[in-house]
From TrEMBL:
This is Pseudouridine-5'-phosphate glycosidase. It comes from the Bacteria. Transmembrane segments: none annotated. Keywords: Glycosidase, Hydrolase, Lyase, Manganese, Metal-binding. It comes from Romboutsia faecis. One of its GO terms (molecular function) is hydrolase activity, acting on glycosyl bonds. Gene3D superfamilies: Indigoidine synthase domain. The keyword Kinase does not apply.
Length: 266
């Protein structure tokens, strides 16, 4: 039944079936973050970063109502040229399918599709989190909810700077989602390092992160893992693009090490 809705690129499917390294990417940068033709160049460059690290990129979107994991050049071009494409969230997926729409995907929706395809590592720039308190009610983003409910590792550079980072981390902690800092003890808001909060664990190598992920998944400890790749000085004045380049590289290194661990049966 799933095949009716989900289409996985042949190269991506081959790698998934063989247990080889694959990194999932969202498509929102193609349709929302940059303009044509820069969006195509950026997407291709991010995919090249992942390939150069020895992994296969799988960009996620919805094309004519079909859930796509791994886009062709033609599909990337289609998303790049269409100025009216919506960014579909988790709740939108059934409606987009039934209406045969073409959409980019939010982080939450991308996590859903990556999980359906069997991909365990996802790279992005930063997460949405918990809105600041309004009338004593917290608005928790679907990014965090999906991370809580899905066995996936999300590599990003922090949480949106307008949001309540402390509440986001408390929500993840309450729901058993570990937060790993890659060579850092702190998680900062996106594009700034003030108001930092402590991560659960500071791990300084992709291999050690991979060992943690493998142990977690071998034990079937349900929920995702948030891996924070700290912002570098010259990135703060830049856009999401450099963040995604760096996070894609780290994601590829992690999934490549995971592949080696499973292959060696360690």
């Amino acid at each position: 039944m799933l095949e009716k809705y989900l289409q996985i690129h042949s190269e991506v499917q081959k790698s998934i079936s063989a247990g080889e390294p694959v990194v999932a990417l969202g498509s929102d940068i193609i349709s929302n973050d940059t303009h044509y033709p820069k969006n195509i160049n950026v997407t291709n460059d991010i995919c090249k970063v992942i390939r150069n690290c020895g992994a296969i990129p799988a960009t996620i979107a919805i094309i004519d109502g079909i859930l796509k994991v791994g886009l062709t050049e033609e599909e990337i071009e289609l998303l790049s040229l269409n100025k009216n494409i919506i960014n579909a969230d988790r709740k939108d997926i059934p409606f987009v399918i039934s209406r045969k729409q073409t959409c980019s995907t939010t982080i939450a929706a991308s996590i859903v599709l990556a999980n359906l395809a069997g991909i365990k590592v996802f790279a992005t720039s930063h997460l949405q989190g918990v809105r600041r308190e309004s009338d004593n009610i917290f608005d928790i983003s679907t990014d965090l909810r999906e991370l809580v409910n899905t066995d996936i590792a999300v590599i990003c550079s922090g949480i949106n700077s307008t949001l309540n980072i402390g509440s986001a981390l408390e929500y993840l902690n309450t729901n058993g989602v570990p937060v790993i800092g890659y060579k850092t003890n702190e998680i900062s808001s996106s594009y700034e390092r003030k108001n930092s909060f402590a991560v659960d664990y500071n791990i300084d190598s992709p291999l050690e992160i991979s060992k943690v992920l493998k142990a977690k998944w071998d034990l079937n400890l349900r929920s995702g893992v948030l891996i924070v790749n700290p912002i570098i000085n010259d990135e703060i004045e830049d856009s999401n693009i450099q963040l995604i380049y760096n996070n894609a590289k780290l994601a590829a290194d992690i999934t490549k090490n995971l592949y080696k661990l499973y292959k060696s049966k360690l």
